[in-house]
Specification:
eight-stranded parallel barrel; alpha/beta; two-stranded parallel ribbon; single chain; TIM Barrel
């Protein structure tokens, strides 16, 4: 089993807000500080959804995403930044930050599914939202990422999402190692089930890397099993606002500290960002 475990801190997401946990970042400075604290706690990568700094509403606006990206890079230049491709309606909006920033890693969603989202105009939760990710989008997003040197992280919300990835992968443009993130507990996706997780990992192509995250109470059971099976761990306020004691997390960095503790109990240790780059197959930038 690989001794090094990649710990990712998902800093904001689309669901939570400051009313639920004041540590959630909205401004570039807040993102930068949260990212730096997560890095010092043991994270090798941060996953970022841009937020409007005044309203906190998720946005695909390139200028906003760039300000956040640059602030993190200035505060913690070693970190890998994983940029979402899941914010926005139109395909061109969702891809715009990826094309502009050319991050080392970006999320690649594999399912069209029921998925409650924040309405960008009202800021309210829309429980009737359908998260659209067609085969054409999966193909076009993945190809765009690979061509510009961004490593896709395939987001798997149920077994159908993994099969969708297999269908598109036949075109041959995905570069090895393939990287997957199993997302548990999203309304519209699968709930955390240990046996199902083990079966899904067994289906992955040889040499693939995988990580896992879980929503709310499913966060720490999911990342613990992932670490136990030789995979990696994603924590952060995007997925869960609390720590295992039930108290509000002081920031994503505090959840990283818990992940480091769990990994240590299982005989593993946090990968540095450069070690994570090697494990994920991220090519050096010129």
């Amino acid at each position: 089993m690989e001794k090094k475990v990649i710990i990712t801190a998902a800093l904001s997401g689309s669901w939570p807000n400051k009313q639920q946990n004041s540590a959630l970042p909205y401004t570039p400075a807040e993102y930068a500080e949260e990212a730096y604290k997560a890095y010092k706690a043991g994270a090798a990568m941060v996953h970022v959804h841009a937020r409007d700094p005044k309203t906190g509403i998720p946005t695909p606006d390139v200028a906003t995403a760039t300000a956040i990206y640059d602030a993190i890079k200035q505060r913690a230049p070693e970190l890998i930044i994983n940029v979402t491709s899941g914010v926005g309606i139109a395909t061109e909006d969702r891809l715009a930050p990826i094309k502009a920033l050319k991050p080392e890693v970006a999320s690649l969603n594999t399912n069209t599914m029921n998925f409650a989202m924040v309405d960008r105009k009202t800021g309210k939760i829309n429980i009737d939202n359908v998260f659209t990710n067609t085969f054409t989008m999966l193909q076009d997003f993945g190809r765009t990422m690979e061509e510009q040197g961004t490593k896709p992280e395939a987001e798997i919300y149920d077994i159908g999402g993994l099969d969708n990835w297999f269908i598109i992968s036949k075109q041959g443009f995905f570069s090895q190692p393939y990287n997957f993130n199993f997302v548990w507990g999203t309304a519209g996706g699968f709930s955390f089930r240990p046996l199902a997780f083990a079966s899904l990992v067994d289906m992955l192509p040889q040499g693939s890397t995988f990580t896992s995250c879980g929503v709310a109470r499913e966060q720490f059971p999911a990342v613990t099993q992932s670490c136990l099976m030789g995979g990696h761990m994603r924590v952060g306020l995007e997925d869960n606002l609390r720590i295992p004691t039930g108290e509000l997390a002081k920031g994503s960095w505090e959840q990283v500290e818990w992940a480091v503790r769990i990994a240590s109990c299982l005989g593993r240790e946090p990968a540095t960002p450069d070690e994570a780059r090697k494990l994920l197959g991220i090519k050096p930038r010129k």
